[in-house]
What does this fold into?
Amino acid sequence: MESFVEALANSCNKEIGEVSFLEPAASESVAPSRYCVKEILSLDEEGVRHVWSKVSLIEPATVKDTRAEYLAWRVWFMKQRRSFMFKRSENLGEVGPTAVHPESNRVGEEGKEREVDTQTKENDCKLEVTIARCPSPFETSTEGSIYLDEESESGAQSPTLRDLQIDWENTEKRRHIVLISMHGLVRGMGVELGRDDDTGDQVEYVVELAKALAQHPGVYRVDLLTRLLEDPAADACCSLKEETLLHTAGKHGGAYILRAPCGPSRQYLRKEHLWPYVYEFADNAVEVVKKKQAVLEDAGEGCELYAVHGHYADGGEVAALMAHTLGVDMVMTGHSLGRNKLDDLLKAGSLTRREAEEAYNISRRIEGEERALDVAAVVISSSQEEIDDKWTLYDGYDTKMQELSSARHHQGHRVPIMTMIPPGLDFTSINAHQSLESLQPTGKFDQTPIYNEISRFLVDPKKPPVLVACQPNDSENVAALINAFGACPALRGMANLVLILGSREKMDSMGSDSRAVLQNVLKLVDDLDLYGSVAYPKRHSQSDMADIYSLATSMHGVFVSMGEKDLTIIEAAGCGIPVISSSKGCAKDIVATLHNGKIVDEGNLTDISTAIVDILMDECLWDAYSKNGVQNIVAYSWAAHCSVYMESIEKEKRRRKASLNNLASICSGSWDEKAFKENVLSMSDVGHMDVLNNDLIGVPGSLCGGLGGGQALEFDWGDWMVDEEISNRQPRITTRNRAYAFSFDNQASARTVLHVLKVAVSNLEVEGGPTGVGVVSMLSFDVTCSLIEQEGIDLDVLDFIVCSAGVDVFVWAGGDMVLYDPFDAHIDEDWDKSTVQSLLDRIPNGAGGVEQKLLKPYKDVHGSSDFGPCHILMELSKGAQPAADEVALSDLIKRKIRRAGVRANIVLQVDESPRGATTVPIVHVTPLRACRSQALRFLMCQVGIPMSRVTIVCGATSLVESEGGGRRRVGFAVSDMSPLLEGSQRVIVMPPNKETQVREPKDGLDAKMIEKLKYEIGRNLYGDRVVMIDSDCARIEQKAGEDWGGGVEGSPR
It folds into this structure.
């Protein structure tokens, strides 16, 4: 059936006036299925109906051509839709011009098609977009307004998204938003700003955002998820599983901090060391959210899980994983971006790429950000500069492609919507002035504890302060200000420099970056002999910030920010302090909006000192900037921020829903039962349909199954109802409370793991027992089942089978192993096989030139290269590039796909060649949500089994004992083992034997490939959660019989 569907999609795109990406090559041979499609398309609407009526009523079912039935129905429905679209187009033409996208450059007469070629970064791929005269139900006007479907269900015209006014207070829906901030010491009160590199403005930002969103009329509850920490050196509240930030309504409404465990619970880890525990945190966070949703439901306060919002790279990847598992929309805020940081480090010459990798784990951070971009529906940015100059460095985002994607939905392509929202400000926390009269000096600024802490550094503490309040990071560029201050005698004579650089106990306890910045500050103070003119207090509390700002206001000082994202500019403006800002990032945008200071070139020391002197010496200018900041600060209120935040997400939800609904109605292969029945009954007499002779149809007789004419058959709906009832029977896995999943990486490893599976099922109760058993296989369903049966294991002892690299999920239900429909619907979004296949076919081999391609179709033992509508298998070309690194090449493939706006999973597998070679590098390409780890997590989430109660058994292909550290380097046959090893699940690794041991090849290509498929495991990395055992049956039976319960309440650690 898949070949018919693909032929239909490729043959009738222009016929129905839809968007077509990447037309197949002209040299492609015409398949028989393509001929059948052409014949059916040549018929009119009535003719196609007759084709369908003949094929659908053939009895018995064993001789029925279901492919032709499906094809005829789909063409019939599409032709009906096409007629409606043209009629609507004519009606729109009488009212006014057809709405178009501003980038579309529509030219020529109406009715003519036009093409727009959008070139991706580095000319990797081109998207050929063909748009017919018939307008899409989802287009953009010349003013940028996005049109929904022209008529709603009630027949009323739908408004544009720009004009859409959402009455949040009158909506009956309760919304639940989850924020993710994995690293740092996140707590509600007394945030330790500046304790280390990870406890900066981001921590304060997410806490304030949670409280502000909870007060939005469209939000009932906000949960901020962070890491549960029982480190004695951390505050006791970091070990609380739940902390109330703000209570708003009902019993559970408001903003809360929820904490989930990951990694060593009694050890605080910097963000660079948290990457091995991202999957574990995501698994536990899913359970925390599900439990909270159940609590809300039980209390009569049930909420829709509206969005999962990840902050920073690690939080973004966690949010992406949770969005996949829970099937919810994802939002991301990057805060600080890895690619930009790496570029700055390399340009400054402070670190080499290798040193940056060791210090910051920078490549893993960048990949985390790319994975978040793959999934995110909306990305929140604080400045347009960040979007244009920083996000465009990533493979997953391109400005032109985003404009094209937002104008009309293209199946198979996805680019996140970038939304620029200025950061918010909590006025109450800084005592922002409510009237201009309050700007006058109070005379009490010298009675505060922080004043005494500052004044002890200064010879004349009554001078106006040049205030800096930021974290000791290189990006804040504090050194430039110190140099500018020291180089200007006039400025040194009229002002003091006050540096609020976080809090510290001892410099040795600070992070390496923060310590280096502070050491440089002390060195500059000494070199420029600024003693008595510069204050750098050792510590301050969050409540002291209000007094610090009040001091600067009362003494007519100036606030200076040389960083790109210093949110303290807003706080200073709210307190009436004039601001000097750098010319980069959102700091520049804030000053330009508030008109409360000057923007300078942070690299020009004279510009910095001159701007400060001008404001300090001109009292009228100081007053004007001060008053402007107070009057205009409302633009940066949290209420305004949350209003734009919620509208951006809601509009994107509605846009995508309207787009996908229209796409489903036109091109979906699924049966719309209601419309199907209504159409059939309207064309028949009392549920009967006349079946005509073949010669009246005008199509080959084979399509109609050779059915004779003149018959009248009754369509029995009862058969469908019985089949539907069977398919909806409860899967047996839903009765379990824990599960074993056996990993089939290739046929050799499957044979080893099958021995363990046989031992395990002999110790478990198939019916009524608490433990379920299943398989997660890279192989197809048929091959997987064949291997299981060859081992003498009956399929009825298995509760589930995840196969075809995670594309298909089968569950035991109704006495048979049946496809799990919810997963099929879950992975279909933004996937189009022909689009992906065309991209893969055009990737050149770097060493072989343009003529030689990097990939070639993989064929199984039967010579077939068709592996289903959601699964593409390719083989890496080895001859043209003998010294290549396959895993690096698989990353290259992923980059090419991302840059074309396509989202997919790329997995490398090493297997025995059906043609006798030692190893064959196979590339599996599947939908973004379809991989073994995500399929398993989705299924377990659906049936209510926490991942902490799942045990995965897998077989290694190589083993190397590490010297010291208690770690082993273990090799596997696939590149997707990382998410199966990392997580809250238990993992049993079987060591290699003679059959699974991969012979280390002398060929450089295979050697590098196998080396890259190795992973480190050990007690100091995963504790007892990942263990390696031998194949002794007694050990296996012992493990198989153990109850490894736990979950979030009882961490396996």
